[in-house]
Amino acid sequence: MIWSADLVVPVAAPPLQGGAIAVRDDRVVAVGPAAELRAANPDMGERAFGDAVIAPGFIDAHCHLEWSLTVPSATADFAAWMGAFLAMRHRMQAEDHSAAARLGALRRLAAGTTALADNGPTGAGVTALAERGMRGIVHLETFGDPAPGEASESAAARTAEAIAALGGDGIEVGLSPHAPYTVGPDLWAALIQRDELAGVSWSTHLAESPAELRWHHRGDGPLGEAYAPLGVVPARWGATSAGVIGALEHHGALRDGLIAAHCVRLEDGEAEVLAERSVVAVHCPSSNRRLLCGRMPLARLRGAGVTVALGTDSPASGGPFDLRVEARAAADLHAASGEAPDAEALVRMMTTGGASAIGRSGDLGALAPGYRADAVVLSRVPGLNAWQATIDERAEVRMTLIGGAPAWDRENPPADTGPIETSAQGIREGLC
Ligand SMILES: [Zn+2]
Asked: What 3-state DSSP class applies to 2?
């Protein structure tokens, strides 16, 4: 099958006017001018999208499918938000996690996302992604609470068993130690030492807020106060380094290829440490802005050679399910700094950057021969260059394709959309 459109944004090659993509089975076999591809593939049918933009399916490098039913609390900063969020989280039942994950997957698919890195405590994302034919990694999130008297080694063994039990449905399962302040050095080390966890993807929240840094430095302040009602004392990593990232590196806790959300509060030299460990930093600008966390030092990270991807986080902290909204939020957030990423850099963050995060470079995140035929078709806004046209708010997602087949179609949305939305609304009203 040939897909053609007025504008094709392969990402791996310059944008094409009047371009096309030839797809055989679930992979791209050629990209080029439509006329050339038609002549070279006379046996192929054509789907002509006309006045549209075809881009690679977007890859959300940090999200929480299981928090899709939450709403942002009215409280202002990170620690106050965390307190309100934890109370809401503890009201959720197993079926609520599952309904939330289904809603989160569907909404992201409708926004052009074809693959993602999920983080959640029950692993409900596995079924939700498989059901939609989406790709990605579900990171089972641990909040590092060994049972009273339980050794870290035994808690780590339990986590490894839970991850092994979740595998299946073609969805990769990884591990997310939630953050250094909820998973302390002993448990983190025990997790690293487990052979079963050596080959899986790891994801965490890193250097997110001023409250986290204050806790790291002094062991007091709003983060401790947010956890106190739960009887939890956040973990500390010792005064080995000015920053959290340096402390993790000192303890051998920064795994190569770690997916690290936020990376907002960096000390000197920490961007270089992330680069050395091939950590992919995930920018979640809506969340950072709502929780008053600050602004990711994007230019510093990229200058040090760190791959930066884009994530939606969750509605709990203001994320909108939609990576294109995050791209525009990033442009706004950095505008005053004079180092705002341009549209091309933003599209790369949400495609090839995301592919790096989930370990699928060369397979996902671009439209090039040999890559999976995962794509989004957008309505075309006239007068914009190809990169701007991909993230412009007036461009609507017409279709999302995975492995060459439509997975979401605006003209003909999946039949279960209504029931999923209705069920989600009911649960949300009970929770919030
Ligand atoms: Zn998060």
From this structure: strand
